[in-house]
Amino acid sequence: SFSPRSSADKRELVIVGYGGSYGDALRSAVIVPFQRESNVTVRYDETCCARVGPTLEAGGFAGDLVVGVDYGGLLSWAQKGFLLGDARLTRLSRNRGIPERYRYPGTLVNTEYAYVMAAHGKDAKLPTSWSEFWNFHRYPGRRALIRATPVGQLEAALLADGVAPAKLYPLDVERALKKLDKLRDSVPVLFANSPADLVNLIARGDASYAIAFSNRLEAAKHDGLPVAFTYAEGLRTGNGFGMLKGARNADAAIEFLEYASRPDVAARFAALAGLQLAKPDDVQSPATARADSSQVTVSPSYWAQHRSAVGEQWVRWLVH
Amino acid sequence: MGTLAGSLSAPTIERHRGYAVFAAGLCVFVALPLATVVSLSIGSPWYSIYARLFERPEIIRIILRTLLVAVITAAITVGLALPVALTIGFSSTRRRLALLWLFAIAGFSPFLVRGYAFVGLLGEHGPVDALRRLLQISGGPLLGTAAGVVVTLVHALIPATVIIITAAISDDTKRQISVAAAFGAGPADRFLLVTLPTLIPSLVSAFAFAFIIAAGAFTAPSLVGGGRETLAVQVIYMHAIDLDDLKSAAALSILLALCILLCVAAIIAAFGSKRSRPGSLRRLRSVAAPLRRVSPRVLGAGGTFLRVALTSFAIILVAVPLVYVVAVSFQPQDMLAFPTDGLSVRWYRQVLADSSWLHAAAVTARIGIVAALLATSAGYLVAQATRQLRPSSARVVRAATIAPAAAPAVMFGVGLYVIASRIGLAGTEFGVALAHALAALPIAYLAVSAGVERYDDSFDRAAAVLGASPAARLIAIRLPILMPSFVAALVLSLLVSFDEVIMTLFMAGTDVQTIALRMWSSAIHSAGPELAVPSAFLLVVTGLGMLILFAQFGSPTDLTKRNTNG
Amino acid sequence: MAEAVGLESVRKRYGAVTALDQVSVSVPSGSFAAVLGPSGCGKSSLLHAIAGLVRPDSGVVRLNDKVVGPDVPPESRGVGMMFQAPTLFPHMSVFENVAFPLRVRGTPDAEVNAATQSILQLADLSDYSRASPKTLSGGQQQRVALCRALVFRPSVVLLDEPLSSLDRPLRESLQRELLKMQRATSATFIMVTHDRDEAMALADVVFVMQEGRIEQAGPPSSLYRAPVNRFVAEFFGGSTVLSGDLHADSNLWSIVNADGLKLHSSAGNPPSAGKMDVAIKPEDVRIRRHTSNDAAGNGDCLGRIEEVRFTGPSVLLIVSCPSARLLARVDADDSEQLADGDSVIISVNSADTVVI
Amino acid sequence: MAEAVGLESVRKRYGAVTALDQVSVSVPSGSFAAVLGPSGCGKSSLLHAIAGLVRPDSGVVRLNDKVVGPDVPPESRGVGMMFQAPTLFPHMSVFENVAFPLRVRGTPDAEVNAATQSILQLADLSDYSRASPKTLSGGQQQRVALCRALVFRPSVVLLDEPLSSLDRPLRESLQRELLKMQRATSATFIMVTHDRDEAMALADVVFVMQEGRIEQAGPPSSLYRAPVNRFVAEFFGGSTVLSGDLHADSNLWSIVNADGLKLHSSAGNPPSAGKMDVAIKPEDVRIRRHTSNDAAGNGDCLGRIEEVRFTGPSVLLIVSCPSARLLARVDADDSEQLADGDSVIISVNSADTVVI
Ligand SMILES: Nc1ncnc2c1ncn2[C@@H]1O[C@H](COP(=O)(O)OP(=O)(O)OP(=O)(O)O)[C@@H](O)[C@H]1O
Ligand SMILES: Nc1ncnc2c1ncn2[C@@H]1O[C@H](COP(=O)(O)OP(=O)(O)OP(=O)(O)O)[C@@H](O)[C@H]1O
Ligand SMILES: [Mg+2]
Ligand SMILES: [Mg+2]
To answer: What's the pLDDT tens digit per position in C25-75?
Structure first.
């Protein structure tokens, strides 16, 4: 079919998100039952999210909803005008009891995951704090980091360097990078390309320890891969939905979000995807995560504001 | 030899204004998306974004390092591809077909998956590091080093370069080699004074191709590279996607593209002139001089040994990741690793149950075929045009043709998307095919031009005086004689289309799903053995397909060799 | 008679080399023309210019009385051409090579087969029709190329040394076939050849070229008998050209060279006075051994044999007399007592010599 | 004399074609051999087998009295070879092409320059030494190839139709140079040619081939005068072979054909009885017009002229008498009254005819 698909189909909803286990979870826990309950056809586009920014910048249609994006990323898009601040969405967000820190027009952020310490081996000895993570005598072996963004990793370095969680923001980027230098100078460091690669590196044992994504680790553990991780001093990050500029079907999008944020549906999805619900009083999120009071929240506003500038410093550090 | 009819340069044959018009059109076609990228890189004042880039010392370093990695990669690639091509070109039909088959199907396993195979192969627990420890070579695993990136890139580039060079080994080459032997030229002299100079155009093409692709590499350094080895396109990608800084990404893209084009221009200027100059012959002669003291028998045996050794190494380099991929597809657990605890067909069941893979395969095939045909025809027309344009215009056209590969796909994709969405092509299969054709144009052009450059026009002249119209000449004479180059171009463009992700990402919109795209998107979130399953399938399917194709068209060089009569 | 091919002041230069230098020729329709000249004199360039494969720097080319501009492509000129190198299409069998011109003209298959087979038979190539051209011998390739140029019976046929790699019997038989074909189709043939005998046997008109110029054009016998200059006399006539002084005696005059050798004698008024060039054919030179009792007569001179070349029925002698060197041809039987270094008496049968 | 090149029972087949059929030849060192034969008879294959470019199916090749196995590569054989097609290296200038054999032998530059320049001069190519071979005319290319084969003064030189695309004067001058070079270096030359006169002028020994076989080997004059079979008589001698019956009369015998034409007469005992073949050279056939007052005598017969071929000094006539067809060569002057269709009286100067 070498012709553009007609956009006249009013009851079609295009959702852009990630593939893999995340996509599977979303499909089975949310999309499929939603389609059964409504007359909306959902097309789930798994190519998130490289296309979204440039496409919107160019004035094109990138989809109706985006899903699985960090709150920081959503904020920065919102500030560029890529999100549609629909009033119904703002209302929905409030009604569902989304914590204040994750509320912004055009977004619905009802889940969280965390940057955590992971290790190779089912019963591996785990560091209990980021400063332990930097203890190369007790925890020898390669470390794996993620290359694409410094988010979470700078926070981890500062916490390891003794910065109090409350004093974390604004980040002392130079100090964080110096601490990371220590890491890189002491043990071999691998840089993963994606969260999925991080899991592979840890599971295969190419890296002994990693700063990794809790949701991916939950899934890996669930699958029986030889990984261990702890939520201790985990860096929590909001993750959720955004309504995209140029959405062709805002009504269906709202309908979908109403369904997806229904407590039972959200819980089902979060469990499948290895995420925690962002509601503080939630009971169904993984017990370890909830119990760990040492977790720190990554500041969405800081990253929305400083993403590019800190990113440049990160690149400089990477290659120096 | 047929050069006599060709000795009298014939302005009226195949010198057609149509070629120039086409070339001009193509330049515009390529220029439009590039112009969009340029416009994205404009700040206020217009140069501010660029000025900002130059204030960052790491940017220059990244670009230089990228070019260095590309040069090293291209040199190693061509150094390996040449002996392989010679082995293929001078061996029996059967062996030739088998080798070509191996190199061609290697390309039909998506590079993303092979890249993951390298992560496993080069890592701490991979066979390469095991070998290193066995041989007690100091150092660590290649994973996360520039060397690992180079190895991965060489692996990726060998099939295409081998195909380009093999297509250039013609009966004429063989005849000249036997003439040289008759005049007392030993193996070294034959190689240095005859084989090498006659293969120069194809070697330049292959080198330029390898250089461009390596300089624009994204997947290999992302998967295998470390932090310091972060290359230019990765940085561009980070700016465009992760750091939301499209303007810097655009400016950096333009900068990188210019550097690549300059380097390619320099390569072509240095080696690409049609007739080797006396100076270079003299240099080759002085290389040959000390070798002449060695007995020809020893030299011949040594040369053969070297050739066989390098060819074997290339075969291993190409084949091992494929074996690894097939093995991984039977990994019972959800991780990309060599199966050590039993085998499982779990992922096959999963893939076969998912009709979207099959759908994606059909879309991929359709797009691939259209793109390959478009790219090859355009590549041929450009090769014709550059042959007859004034050198200065030819340089412009060549640059425009290569630009789609030199410009990082992220930004070229954005530029293309902007144009395509204006004319309603975004989000259509044809739009994607068009984008793929552009992406494949450089390699198609390089593959075809290696043939066109040494094509003996006298066949066209003979056909013309016998009454054949230009169209009849194209179909009855040029196409069949240049078939090896055309097949090479088609296969290589098909491979490009098959592996293209980033531009597809933009052009496909939310409606078109190719296999590469499907793999890429699931790999971001969970890079599991599921990815290896379609690859294993494709290995078989494309393997059979290529066998049929080569059997149909014959191999790049025909067998029956008649040495020196007429 | 209508003109089939005409060139007017055609020039073509390649850098310092002038391949065609103000060439003007006119070949009447239905005639058989031969082009002769030393290697590199521009013969092939001439054919290429006619076929439209070379763009002349200046000048006019006419075909069938119509000017064809340099932009008229070869395929629209309706000429058949055989190149000096066979240039067979390597991917086609011998049969398909020969059938090619018919195929591109859309000739029905049956006709293609008949015509191709019959011309292959003529060239004694029937056994090779399925062979690949790469496996043919040099002469076989040349014959295929010839068949391919003729099979579609073009009205103007350009042949560039079509028979140069063939043995004599085959060449003579093909010469006969060429002539027969040319007469039968009343086509115009222009053939480059380096073989004077071939030109004489076949051609109605001969063009002798040198360094891009046409030196003389005309029927072969007239070029043979009345060369207009030294070059044509030597190149086409195989003659030796010697200079001599006019000795006039009432209405009888003769030309005698420095050695006293009488080169020419005639009645009537001499064409001019002073030094004159005379072309002497080898067969008009008489040689006899110089023995003590046989002195050189008036008009004879003494010389020495430099070289004896045995060429079948006759023998070619190179003889030198004090101021010149001469070629002489004698019957093989008469030559048996002659050897290198012999002293001989030379005389010229001046009835057939030509004053240039 | 030592043997330079020897072949023993060499065979080479290509599918159905036998290119070399049990070929045995022996060329003494320092001699000049010529190979003649019809197109496609295996001449080039013979040279290729010697040079090591073709692997014989069976048989032995010797060079300088030593057996060289089929695995001895061409470059170790030390022969110089000129191929039938020029096959110049397109990426080298004319100079570099010619210098190539010296370069690969590591000859010092100064020597390379001197040798290359002098041989280019000999072939009249000095002006083209910087040219690309692609821009040369056919004859120029051939000369470059010739220079390349000779420049390094190999002791065995194989030349495959080296002069076929050259005009006569140039060819003769190069023939002379070849001979001079061969004598000076006492090298062994083996030259394929289709020109009998060339073979006669140059060769010490001639091999006549047909369909892969050597039909006769020997000095040219002996092949010319005493062909061993019909093929050699016709091909090399240019003779017509006619059959006749023996008419013996005491110790005088003659051979007379069916038309009463006396083909041969001799004294002594006849070589055999019954039907015999006689080779008659064209120049031994006498032709005179058949006029009413001139009847055919004894041994003459009546015939008709089928074709008159004007070839410079002499004219070749094809005449037919009732049971045969003959070639006759007459002086151009004597031929003027003869034309196609004329009735003539034919007689044979039977002193020179050969009984086969
Ligand atoms: N590679 C080959 N494959 C098949 N047949 C071949 C091959 N090479 C030669 N022949 C055949 O062998 C025969 C002898 O070829 P060769 O080239 O020796 O002939 P030649 O005597 O040199 O003829 P010419 O005078 O035409 O050059 C020819 O019939 C030719 O077709
Ligand atoms: N493309 C070219 N570039 C430069 N010079 C050329 C080119 N083509 C021909 N020439 C020169 O033009 C001259 C005439 O060439 P041409 O081929 O017409 O000669 P020819 O008479 O056919 O000679 P031959 O008998 O050797 O074939 C030669 O000196 C040749 O070197
Ligand atoms: Mg020529
Ligand atoms: Mg031959």
So the answer is: 999 999 999 999 999 999 999 999 999 998 999 999 999 999 998 888 888
Asked if D240 is an interface residue toward chain C (Cβ–Cβ < 8 A), one would say no
Contact D18, D41 (CB under 8 A): no
Given this model, what pLDDT does residue B555 score? 43
Task: Among B221-235, C97-111, C291-305, D166-180, name the one with the lowest average pLDDT.
Answer: C291-305
Instruction: Give the DSSP per-residue string, D191-231.
Output: EE-S-HHHHHHH-SEEEEEETTEEEEEE-HHHHHHS-SSHH
Angle D103-D104-D108 from CA coordinates, rounded to 5°: 40
Positions of chain B with pLDDT lower than 70, given as ranges: 1-16, 93-94, 272-280, 525, 542, 546-547, 549-566
Neighboring chain A residues of B414 at a CB cutoff of 8 Å: 54, 57-58
Please say if the pLDDT value at position C268 is more than 60. Answer: yes
Strand partners, D319: D305, D326
Cis, bond preceding B45 (omega within 30 deg of 0): yes
Residue having the nearest C-alpha atom to atom 6 of ligand 1: C135
* D281 lies within 8 A of chain C by CB: yes
Query: How far B361 CA sits from the closest chain C CA (Å)?
Result: 36
Write down the pLDDT at residue B24: 86
- Whether the Cβ atoms of residue A192 and residue A145 lie closer than 8 Å to each other: yes
User: Residue A231 in contact with residue A237, Cβ under 8 Å?
Assistant: no
Cβ of B178 within 8 Å of Cβ of D92? The answer is no
Chain B contact set for D190 (CB, 8 A): none
Give the N- to C-terminal CA distance of chain B in Å, as an integer: 6
In chain B, residues with a C-beta closer than 8 Å to the C-beta of A55 are: 417, 506, 509
A78, A104 Cβ separation under 8 angstroms: yes
- Residue D259 in 3-state DSSP? coil
What residues have CB less than 8 Å from C70, skipping those under 6 apart? B11, B12, C52, C55, C56, C61
Alpha helix positions (H), B168-224: 171-182, 187-189, 196-215, 219-224
For residue C87, the CA-to-ligand 3 centroid distance in Å is: 14
Asked if the peptide bond before residue B442 counts as cis, ω within 30 degrees of 0, the response is no
Judge whether D182 and D189 are in contact, CB under 8 Å.
Answer: yes
Q: Which residue of B has its CA nearest to C71?
A: B12
3-state secondary structure chain A: CCCCCCCCCCCEEEEECECHHHHHHHHHHHHHHHHHHCCCEEEEECECCCCHHHHHHCCCCCCCEEEEEEHHHHHHHHHCCCECCCHHHHHHHHHCCCCHHHCCCCEEEEEEEEEEEEEECCCCCCCCCHHHHCCCCCCCCCEEEECCCCCCHHHHHHHHCCCCHHHCCCCCHHHHHHHHHHHHHHCCEEEECCHHHHHHHHHHCCCCEEEEEHHHHHHHHHCCCCEEEEEEEEEEEEEEEEEECCCCCHHHHHHHHHHHCCHHHHHHHHHHHCCEECCCCCCCCCHHHHHCCCCEECCHHHHHHHHHHHHHHHHHHHHC
**Chain D neighbors of C224, CB-CB under 8 A:** 312
Whole-prediction pTM value?
Answer: 0.84
Q: Verify whether the Cβ–Cβ distance D312 to C85 is below 8 Å.
A: no
The torsion angles phi and psi of C228, rounded to 5 degrees, stand at: -85, -20
Gap from B531 CA to chain C (nearest CA, Å)? 43
> Which DSSP category does D265 fall into?
E
B213-225 residue pLDDT tens: 899 888 888 888 8
| Four-residue CA torsion sign, D49, D54, D59, D63 | positive
Those residues of chain D whose CB sits closer than 8 Å to some CB in chain B are 44, 48, 51-54, 73-76, 78-81, 83-93, 96, 100-101, 103-106, 132-138, 141, 148-149, 152
Q: Is the ipTM of this complex over 0.90?
A: no
